[in-house]
Design a protein that fits this description.
single chain, mainly alpha
């Protein structure tokens, strides 16, 4: 993501390039861009799973309610 050579060949340039590389590419828990993106993807995946499960539960509840209403109507007839 960061080209270290683009900062030059001085030691200070290499140090600066490493800092930028770490900000962009650091490992888990570093607060780097890639770490933050991974965390966001994980959260969004969990949210999508929750919405799918909620949709299934809603559908199942709706079907159960329809069945219960039909059973009550049949008792009246």
């Amino acid at each position: 993501m960061v080209d270290a050579d683009s900062f030059g060949s001085l030691n200070s340039a290499k140090t600066l390039a490493k800092k930028f590389a770490d900000l962009a590419d650091g490992g888990e828990g570093t607060g780097s861009y890639l770490d933050a993106a991974r965390q966001h993807i994980e959260i969004l995946t969990q949210m999508a799973d929750m919405y799918r499960k909620a949709g299934t539960a809603y559908k199942n509840c709706d079907e159960a309610t329809q069945l219960a209403i039909k059973q009550q109507i049949n008792k009246i007839d």
